[in-house]
## 1
Amino acid sequence: MDVASTLLVPALSIRGLTKTYRYGHFFSRRSRQALHDLNLELPAGEVFGYLGPNGSGKTTTLKILMGLVCPDQGEARILGLPSTEFGWRRKVGFLPENPYLYDYLTLAEYLDYVGLLFGLSSALRRERAQHLLRELDLVRSAHLPLRRFSKGMTQRAGLAQALMNDPEMVFLDEPMSGLDPLGRRRVRDLILGLKAKGKTVFFSTHILGDAESLCDRVGILRSGQLLAVGRLDEILRMDIPRYEVLVSGLETTQLDALPCGIDNRRDIGERARLQVREGGLGALVTAVERVGGRVLSVQPVSESLEDYFLRQLTAAGEEDPEWAE
Amino acid sequence: MGGMRRIAAVAANTFRETVRERVLYNLVLFAILMTLSGLLLNPLSLRQDEKIVKDIGLASMELFGTMIAVFIGVGLVSKEIERRSLHLLLAKPLSRDEFLLGKFAGLGLTLSANVAAMTAGLYATLWMIGRHSGPGLLAAVYGILLGLMLAVSIALLFSTLTSSALAAVCTVCVVIGGRFADVIRNMREVAPGAPGWLTTGLYYALPNFHTFDLKDRVVHGDPVGFHQLGWITLYGACYMGVVLLAALASFRRRDFQ
């Protein structure tokens, strides 16, 4: 495959992926659909955020891609090869959610083991391990048994093993989980560094701030189905835009008498912040001026991902969506 | 060739994993202590001291070796599944077959090292009572090692099918059943009501660990020919092959949720 055709091949292509987990014993067999007809395509070199609340099917998708779980239907291709084949594994790194590393090994030994599985030479294993230990600030911990690692150190060690083969594409399941702000910053920089090197990054998260700061595109998953895929600004533009109007010089009764269509009102002393949808903006400004008030500013309010999710989930009648900032 | 290298990598890591288990050292130490305890019976033994030391030494080797094979063998795979360390490995260019065979080979190495240590302990004990046993003792040790490898393969099979606790119970049942295979075959003589198809079926289905037992012959100085060693090797290899194939088939289809 030449360079031009490599660039044309999607890094990841998923078609009709469906998975139902069956559990319980013989007399009380139950099932839960984890994924339903999932379709997704990722071009090479993209940082893609796979978003959804806990239990939405993010980890199941990754497990199917990594061959840990068999799908009921559908297929996936990674770097142009069927996910059931072996060839792509040399070029891919994977970090599962809350990775467990062997208690009895040191990180240096573990990275050497992983390098052996990738068939790297002894010199290359040493070189890659040293590079990753430096990049993830684990040099001083390289010869400690992994059982002594804190949660954040384990997460960084998991990232190191995922990058041991200098992969073309990385799958990261909740990579920021358990990290302190400094650790999160380091991982963010690492992901941005991978992007700068032209690598493809597919990471699942329910921490929306990470997606907002890192992703070229996101996919939003709920109950095993993709709600939306696209650039963040595209997804948030799906909604009717809102405006925040700052007004002054109005009594509470006058504010109460303003026309309907105000989504949110916050009184701040003699001023008030009013949120209104695009269609109601003109009528609101006219009404404020008619009763003697002053419009101090009008600003477009971009909806945050969190707002978007919460509204989608509320519309679907789901309770207690587990999101984090 | 790459497959063999990966199997060797998993085997080497498994060996490193198991030799760092504290319980392993306790069991090996206890086995050597048991062998040394034969010295205490020396004054009571009426010139049977060599036989007593050999009997106790070989029996300890078999008992503690079986405990290591079953409990570490069961934990090897099921612990990786339960703790999800397996997820990291199977995303690498490592097939499920290579992983399982590597685990088997790794524990085989560990057992060989343990049996070697216990054998050295037995020879040392014999030397302490002034007896110099020749290499004939090694035939019994070889039979014990084959039995232990078979027990490991059974433990691996169950650990691919169920949880570690249930796998341990099932493995212990099969190993005990296999030790009493001859008793099961002759059960109708003491319990005429027992269905013949059941006792015969169990006799042939269970691994006959008695086949590997050369202890009595070695202790009493009877020679063990290469023909017999070849026969028990063939039986062990065939049985292990079938059990490992079943384990691979089960492991290939398993979902790791």
Note: The longest helix of chain B spans residues 49-83.
## 2
Amino acid sequence: MDVANLASQLNAGAILPEGAVILTLMVVLIGELALGRASAARWTPYVAIAGLLLSVGLLCLQWDLTPTLSFLGSFNADKLSIVLRSIIALSTLVTILMSIRYVEQAGSSIGEFMTILLSATVGGMFLCGAEELTMIFVSLETLSIASYLLTGYMKRDPRSNEAALKYLLIGAASSAVFLYGLSLLYGLSGGETHLSAIANALAQGTNHLGLLIALVFVIAGISFKIAAVPFHQWTPDVYEGAPTPVVAFLSVGSKAAGFALAIRLLTQAFPAVVEQWQFIFTALAILSMVLGNVVAIAQTSMKRMLAYSSIGQAGFVMIGFVIGTEAGYASMIFYLLIYLFMNLGAFTCIILFALRTGTDQISEYAGLYQKDPLLTLALSLCLLSLGGIPPLAGFFGKIYLFWAGWQAGAYGLVILGLVTSVISIYYYIRVVKMMVVKEPQEMSDVVLNYPAINWTPLGMRPLQVGLFVTLIATSIAGILSNPLFTLVNNAVVEVPHLQTANAAKTPMAILPTTTPELPAPLVSNSDSTAL
Amino acid sequence: MILSTLIWFPILGAIALALVPSRYLKWAALILSGSILLGSLWIAYQFDITQPLIQFREDLPWLATLGLNYQLGVDGLSLPLIILNTLLTWIAIYSSPEATERPRLFYGLVLLISGAVSGAFLAQNLLLFFLFYEIELVPFYLLIAIWGSEKKSYAAMKFLLYTAVSGALIFVAFVGLVWLQGADSFAYTALAGNTLPLWQQLILLAFVLIGFGIKIPLVPLHTWLPDTYVAASAPIAMLLGGVLAKLGTYGIFRFGLGLFPEAWGTLAPGLATWATVSVLYGATVAIAQKDIKRMVAYSSVGHMGYILLGGAALTELSLVGAVAQMFAHGLILAILFHLVGMVEAKVGTRELDVLNGLMNPLRGLPLVSALLVLGGMASAGIPGLVGFVSEFLVFQGSYAVFPLQTLLCVVGTGLTAVYFVILLNRTCFGKLDNAIADFPKVEWRERVPALILSLTILFLGLQPTWLVRWSEASTHAMVAVLPPVTQVTTLAQVLDRE
Amino acid sequence: MPLEFFLLLAAALFCIGIYGLITSRNAVRVLMSVELLLNSVNINLVAFSNFLDRQNINGQVFTVFVITVAAAEAAVGLAIILAIYRNRDTVDMEQFNLLKW
């Protein structure tokens, strides 16, 4: 095999969107060195935004191409990966819009921030298409290490330091555990590293105990990334200590990457134990929905509240994952897309408030309606959308999820989802109440001294753009969700292994009929996932 | 397109209010709500009363994956409620005080609610109904929490959580029905003639009953009601009791009786008993109240029971009566809340022990108390007023099927008379204490809403055909498809049959 | 030597790493425990590669990547510990209590 032949087999065109991001990253890094830090703040964010837009554009162009494996089967550029990569690129895009002013005001270097953020994006995007163990590990670590750096970016702030250290130690430990699971997978499959080959090799083997141990280790690693209870302990601390734009990225981009990893790895490499992993994820979903939404009630800090709320939201997304039907995967990805806009919208508002007042205590929002109606409206709509109030996007996202869950027979999960949604309305509306309902005389001190609204300082315009984009998307994405959902559905339908994951399921079962024995037959009629 | 106008005109108007100069806000809101009132009257004029089916159909594809399509229509069951909604919206806006704080938000939210409630009444798709049902949640929360009186924050949160739970239950029932039926859409017509086994129907109906039972509310799901009605300001209490509670009864009729007729027939004796308990409980608790607004609030619990009784009996007459009672109760509750609000605004208290002699022609509030007497009489079912017509129809229709429950409900009407006599006796009659009788003057324009409402009450009481003609065809069709209800059907027998 | 010996060694190393992770008070020691975890994975991979996959030696390639990434992780970890030491003058885990743990 000569070099030219090899190069043509690599099929490198599939990673053009990532290439655009990497190129942007290099331009930002070198440009900042060459032109100096002082001027970097004025151009680096816009270059990064242009690069990400280019990347999203390239992803759109790839939509109609026949999906091919590239890099000798390491990277799969199918429609599913295109949708997920777009979600990650978009989340970075909105994160950049909200971070410029924040980083500028904190007095840190913007160019470096952009560089690290873009590396995290590259890692996340590669993760969405990775089909080989080494590739999965390297892209996961690219995302993770960049996230640790971002968390500790405010290096004079001891809280940011502490959050970064905690995130790094727990994150490194969890990725080591994940890696241990991968190494077992490698051994069990007799030396295969491609996911499809692993699945084939495992289908012949009978060593289910070993496979289950590998599964548990792998799920521990994934659950850390998506912050599912009980692997969530890092979330509130990191969210509270990290710079707010980073929190926004972690809660959306990083989480989407985690779900992309879960979809690919679990459905493709573990079809033999599909009931077991769906069962584990059912438990994780229940715990996440309950704990995330209940603990969020008690929070006094806005960032911490959103941290717990994002745990609960991840629980909702997991409903779509565990039921294992096409509609389930489609509604899950659709919810991620909707969640991107509403959650980033909420974070944009929090950043704006923090920039003007320097605090993110919920009680300090009292009476904001009088001083800043636009911010109040935007934050209220985003929070109500997160709570699932119609006609906002979150309502439709939840309806898709619950309807898919119900059709798959997961009544218990859906009813629990409804109950926890009602709970979540309580704490979201508490913030709305704080802003809208409070009388002028009950206004908090910082709102009383609220500065005049001024969009001219450096980085305020992008923030405004981000605010409007997320606000509009949150308001109408649900009502106009038909084309979006069709798009996502097409992406899911074309992925063959998502159907095989569902082959063993019987739709009518309401409760687990039998406990699967070990070693379980490959195709069994028992159904332990649907509660 | 006229039905869509009823929904979208107020909703878009609510947004457009953001641009209206503050001086003209109330005028703009009045014009908007007045035009939808005229629109709904025009629909009534065009409405074919001999036709039992859905009229003015609108059907646009929307989210096909979910089976959620934009399907609207009106029939004899929803038409009176639509008119009630638009009428009370106009009156609520008209009667809101000039000095309302944050008027832009207030009128916007009221209009938003009006559109959403119209949408819920018109929706011919279960999911669309649910969507509109949930939309009014937050506006009402804000209306109570911002413009309410003491304990408003607590009351508003209680209202929000109860309603959210009710929404969740209804959603479960709807999704369960569509899934069990194997339908690919939430369209009402596709689901109406479902062929589910009785036990599945019973489970789904239970969810529907509890879900809407919270909204109506029926005892023992009513605990949010006194707090909320008392905390809300008069125009909002009018909308809450007059319109929002009707969403519950409408839902029970449309989605309980309409979708699960067989299960409804099975449960009918239980429902009638439940209704009776509600009636008696509401009436006795109202007697014990010291606060006139709270008394009126509890009277609502009792009166909603009659509607359920009429539905449970399932005779043609009782159903017509129940629909009439929805309309009548909306009018009566609105006028009572309005007048109680007026008394509170002028006298400064709602305590029965303090109020006295308001009938005093010189220094009292003679017209307000006269109309209060009229409202009380209408509520107690005195002949010649609208309350009598509807209650009489309900009782007449139900007696043959459920004699005992009907008799107890008649006793409930008697108790209604008791507490209204207490209320009227203490507030309107007696000697006015000159020391406190320094009330602000009631101006003519403040009297307009009460006069309109009382004239309607009087007119429909004297000319009941105008009240019942709209719904006769529809309720007739409803009864025609139903199995006859007999006292002997019990749950045990149903389970035997299975 | 059979494959099991290597796997047992790796498992033992993994357990030691977890133990160190949980009990250490010094942040640098915690970081070292993480390295132990990664090294146990490396033993696993190399052993599997040697016994099962002599043709492609995927596991050994994987190991090289793991070592590289571990180095990057350690570098970032030490940088963060350095930053925290400058601010707080300590690397004792018990002292990091600004955030609710």
Note: Chain A touches chain C through 41 residues (CB under 8 Å).
